[in-house]
Amino acid sequence: MILGIDxxxxxxGWAIIKPNGDSNxxxxxxxxxxxxxxxxxxxxxxxxxxxxxxxRRYKIEELAVExxxxxxxxxxxxxxxQVIGTVKVAAQNSKTTVFEYTPLQVKMAITGYxxxxxxxxxxxxxxxxxxxxxxxxxxxxxxxxIALTHIFTSxxx
Length: 157
Description:
Blueprint: E1 2-6, E2 11-20, E3 23-33, H1 40-57, E4 62-66, H2 74-93, E5 97-101, H3 103-111, H4 118-128, H5 138-156
Family: Belongs to the RuvC family.
Protein name: Crossover junction endodeoxyribonuclease RuvC
Subcellular location: Cytoplasm
């Protein structure tokens, strides 16, 4: 089982995908949501606890997380970096191997085009899943793209 993570402090998307040879099964997906205005450490703890629980419940073997490639706002970049660190610690404490992918790597793996837009990526995610599913939550869809990137990269590797 692969856990994909779209890191964010307010909305941390996640998707669990089971590789099945030529098809991939979306097992579950969702979003860890934290409240703006709450203590920062408490918000990170919420993310940590939910990611750790997902790793335990679904026996996650590998976790793929999107890395920060570019951020217009320095504070946002620092917050996301701390979320990524929190996710990595949760994975490490669950004996889960972590892999990082840039947004460009995700776009290339999913669509073959580095400037793909959200609509193109969402379409290709659906086509890459066993049941041609559409994921309604944007953060969970991004997490599915990250998990699929890891699967495709591992197969190509």
